[in-house]
């Protein structure tokens, strides 16, 4: 059980890390489009944010995973395309604030394109918020991967995953084998809380640095 739990956590962490990075990249691209693409682009991105946030994550994850034939690909794509709205909203607000600063207007008047400005000036300014967003997305991605796998719409039963272990353990709870579900679930909870703690600490650190500056 310890071996399966460790292997399951490594699988969840791997999928969660890649999905969080992809979702964060989507958030940065959409926030850049909203900030520099004009009023119409901003309205479309805000509408997409409200649309995705209006539907529960688990429902979207199940639908996307089922449409892609379940498995690791469905889990990865589902998590990647459903966890970007909150970070997009934060990055959009930061980019709009940085965009109004004098040195950005000066660079624009000198002929720099918005793409060049975004990568040379905007990205370094919003990088702290971006890194915090990636770290905070990570535990949510891990937890949702285990959730849809537990429901039977994620990884296949042959793969080592916490969701698979918990799903199998449900059949043994009535016989008194409670440890088959408690210890893997506790390991998942500890991993999620640790990464969330890291993200919260990083956010406080960035806030203190911003106040000092």
The gist of it:
This protein has helices at 2-36, 38-53, 57-67, 71-80, 85-99, 102-109, 114-150, 162-169, 179-212.
Write the layout of secondary structure elements.
Elements: H1 2-36, H2 38-53, H3 57-67, H4 71-80, H5 85-99, H6 102-109, H7 114-150, H8 162-169, H9 179-212
Q: Can you tag this structure with a few keywords?
A:
213 residues; mainly alpha; MetI-like fold; 9 helices; 82% helix; 0% strand; elongated
Please give the share of residues in helix.
over 70%
The major beta sheet can be summarized as: none
Q: Mean pLDDT score, rounded?
A: 80
Taking all Cα atoms into account, the compactness measure Rg is: 20 Å
State the order of secondary-structure elements, H for helix, E for strand: HHHHHHHHH
If helices are DSSP runs of H or I spanning 4 or more residues, what is the number of helices? 9
CATH architecture heading: Orthogonal Bundle
**Which topology does CATH recognise?**
MetI-like fold
Give the distance, in angstroms, between the N- and C-terminal Cα atoms: 50 Å
Classify the beta-strand content into a percent band.
under 5%
How many structural domains can be distinguished in the coordinates?
1
**Structure summary, number of beta strands:** 0
Structural class: mainly alpha
CATH class: Mainly Alpha
In CATH terms, the superfamily is MetI-like
Which consecutive residue ranges, at least 5 long each, have pLDDT under 50?
none
């Amino acid at each position: 059980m310890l071996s399966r739990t460790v292997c399951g956590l490594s699988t969840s962490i791997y999928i969660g890390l890649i999905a969080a990075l992809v979702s964060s990249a989507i958030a940065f691209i959409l926030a850049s489009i909203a900030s520099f693409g004009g009023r119409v682009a901003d309205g479309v991105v805000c509408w997409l944010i409200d649309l995705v946030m209006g539907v529960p994550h688990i429902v979207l994850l199940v639908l996307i995973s089922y449409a892609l034939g379940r498995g690791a690909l469905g889990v990865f794509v589902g998590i990647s395309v459903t966890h970007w709205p909150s970070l997009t909203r934060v990055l959009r607000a930061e980019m709009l604030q940085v965009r109004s600063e004098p040195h950005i207007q000066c660079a624009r008047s000198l002929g720099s394109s918005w793409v060049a400005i975004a990568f040379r000036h905007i990205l370094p300014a919003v990088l702290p918020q971006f890194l915090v967003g990636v770290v905070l997305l990570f535990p949510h991605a891990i937890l949702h991967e285990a959730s849809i796998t537990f429901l039977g719409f994620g990884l296949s039963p042959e793969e080592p995953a916490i969701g698979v272990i918990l799903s199998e353990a449900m059949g043994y709870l009535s016989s008194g084998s409670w440890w088959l579900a408690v210890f893997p679930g506790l390991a998942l909870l500890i991993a999620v809380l640790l990464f969330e703690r890291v993200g919260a600490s990083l956010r406080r650190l960035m806030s203190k640095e911003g106040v000092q500056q």
